[in-house]
Amino acid sequence: MTTWNGASPVGRRRIRGGEIPIAPGAPSWRDQKRAQREALKRMLAGARAQPGEDRSGSTVRIAGFNIDIDGVFAFLLFVPLLFIAQWGTLGAAAIAALAPAYVFMRRKRLVKVMLPRLFLFIIPALFVFSVVWSEAPRETFKYALQLGITATAGILLSSARNQEAVLRGLAAAFLAYAAASVALGGSVAVGVGAGGYAFSGLGASKNVVADIASTGLIIALAVLFMAIRARSTFWICLAAVSIPLDLYCVAAARSAGAMVGVGVALLAMLGLASLIFVGRAVRAWLTASLTVVLIWVGLSYSWLSQLMIEFAANLFDKDPTLTGRTYLWYRANDLINEKPMLGRGYNAFWLQGNTEAEGLWRYFGIENRGGFSFHNTAVELLVTVGWVGLVVVAAVVAIALVALVRRFVVSPSMALVCWTAIFLYQFSRTPVETVGLAPFYFSTALAFAALGAAFARVDLRKAARAAYQPRTVKTEKIVQVWPVEQVPSGWANPRWTPQTGSLRLLKSNAKAAR
């Protein structure tokens, strides 16, 4: 006969009738459940934010409007980033002051927010470390620190609690720049097949205004989708104004790289947005297919780059060298062969006084002798930090991309769709532009924000609940036989004294173990 002294009643399941008998003196299962709930409440109460703790993502009500702190920071950060050419030192000072202020505001949870994204700082850390072999160590250190501030700001945006508010703040900043460009912008001569002019916005570069407008178009479209779903008239109107302005800027700038990139990004956005409402299995299958395509693209990078260059030259009536880029890459090849492994140091080439840089500026007619690049991200990395730097940057980006795709499959949202579209837009432009390497530049902050969006915030409540729940371990099935009293009406209530008669079977399929 099985007794309470010989077997543990944990995990037993009754077949029918009555209560499961418990050992003499032990608390009932209702008391145990009540104690568990109270303990869990105490643990969760300790995980809640205490007075004075970081409230990032919370809103404040001003003049009847709910203002989100992260949205305000996104707007205030990107206004000087977008107008950096016009604001100059004042814009750089504003960016340098805003990023530490935002870090201080979120100091209570800074470690928990940044911990899963910490490896992204390998890229700016590599550039800082290139001071050791740089040809211009002072400039390398200065610009690497500026890049670190820009990367930190972008990563903080990706960790904000309310990503929709962040995108709305970005949309407002891009609308301000697009409106100012259309109202006050000019044009520049371009080296197209038949000659002519292209819209250059507030600056002297058509590629810059096209890049800003293309990114603003992606963000405005995402905000429009979210506003329609939330039935927000204000943001629907803002997006409806922003989209036509951005389209005009992109088309009038006649930038082949921007138009091809924004086309790829918009197609990806529409496709991914439709996957939000399908099952996880479908998203996973399509993601696997996309991964195969990306691997093939990576293996065929050189061939696809040349194909895209030829396609863009024919479609937009450009000269076959894409305004002299092929000569830039020819000269860069000689520079790479001189120092192939570690390069010349981050941002140590495009400096006034450098003979090679002065010659290229004179060849391309760059009178201000600055603000120039090799118009290819891989080439720029090879010249500055060599093959070692290129491999490190590629590895960090690949890890973040895998995490971004995985997060979209598990918990899709329109914000993740937008960040993925921004990443694809920037990635598609790497063969013809330098992306994500310029300090105090909007695309650099967005590149790190898109990579940081791959990682979720630390949920203290969920972590506490997971730590409290016992771990279930599967065991072999156990059948315990307990004698009960037989009465004419059927199964009777169990008694502590065994009675003769019918039997009752109780099964246990698992046991709880901490």
Major beta sheet, strand line-up? 1-2
Q: Which value, in Å, is the CA radius of gyration?
A: 31 Å
How large is the share of residues in beta strands?
A: 5-15%
Main sheet properties: 2 strands, antiparallel
Secondary structure tally: strands: 8
Chain-averaged pLDDT: 76
| Uncertain residue segments | 1-20, 45-57, 484-499, 506-514
| Tally of DSSP helical segments | 19
How would you portray this structure in words?
- The protein starts with 28 loop residues before the first helix and ends with a strand.
- It has helices spanning 29-47, 69-82, 84-87, 89-105, 110-114, 122-129, 137-158, 163-184, 206-230, 233-253, 256-275, 280-299, 301-315, 325-338, 355-364, 377-410, 414-428, 442-452, 460-468, and strands at 59-62, 65-68, 186-189, 197-201, 471-483, 486-487, 490-491, 503-513.
- Helix 6 runs antiparallel to helix 7 (137-158) and helix 11 (256-275) packs antiparallel against helix 17.
- Strand 3 (186-189) and strand 4 (197-201) form a beta hairpin.
- The chain contains 19 helices and eight strands.
- Residues 1-20, 45-57, 484-499 and 506-514 have low confidence and may be disordered.
- The strands form four sheets. A two-stranded antiparallel ribbon has the order 1-2. The protein has a two-stranded antiparallel ribbon with strand order 3-4. A two-stranded antiparallel sheet has the order 5-8.
- With 514 residues, it is mainly α.
- It is globular.
